[in-house]
Amino acid sequence: MIINTGNRTDIPAFYSRWFMNRIRAGYVMVRNPYAPQNITKYPLVPDVIDILCFGTKNPEPMLKHLSELTAYHQFWSVTITPYDKDIEPHVPDKTKVIDSFCKLSSVVGIKSVSWRYDPVFLNERYDIDFHIRAFSSMCTKFEGNTDNCVVSFIDLYEKTKRNFHGIREVSHNEQEFLIEKFVEIAAKHGIKVITCCEDPKLAFLGADVSGCMNKIILERACGFSLDIPQSSLSRLMTREGCNCLIGNDIGAYNTCGHGCLYCYANYDSKTVAANIKKHDPESPLLIGRPGPEDIIRDARIEVYRDLQIKWL
């Protein structure tokens, strides 16, 4: 079973105490975001979890807990951008986040970490020249601590346009120019550029367009092959045109406190604040507690590991 924590919120940054309580309890409950009365109960034990996948902008609160997670295979996707507080008002100082990333990499290993430079957008302050300078500087700091960087361009969801006035998409020509430069810069530091849900034709510029959390990447982090039935692949690949295995997410939308203007997982700041007040670190649910009207079902347990084939 693959457990993902990072597509709906940032559990390591804001809910590490809750997450470790769930690890110690051996299970977690998750509301269906589209049918809230339906709750799925997932086991959280090493015997059935092939890999824990984390997505965060700040891994620091989880570093002290890593010794408790050694029985689990892990994959960490850490988003670190060069944007300032005008765009990411509550993300910690980026120098500290980079330091935390490097500490994380030293513990879990370079095959289990990925740096995300995402999303890329353009405006008067954050123009093409800014991105090239910033990306080059950051690659220098990441050298030896990661061998890949995931790059994705901003998608203008309705909530993004509502919360981030004046933002525009990056044109195809601008995307090609930036990817070409990024690939050239990253290669000098032993880093491969991976695109996430972008035009496959960017491959001709040297980018890996196969996805940021696909089966091969997770196998590399695990150290063994994952034998996933086709029926399960369709359930785990929840985004059209994406090869990444992002199903079984235990997070909840409208709960991330970073306040990034481009966020697609939060509706607005008032909704987030209201949900955070309902958070109980002792609850099996991230937000609130199960009620008598809820329907709780056990998740289907599928163990995918194939220990006969070692991944190099």
Automatic annotation (TrEMBL):
InterPro entries attached to this UniProt entry: DUF1848
Pfam families for this protein: DUF1848
Name of the protein described by the UniProt record: DUF1848 domain-containing protein
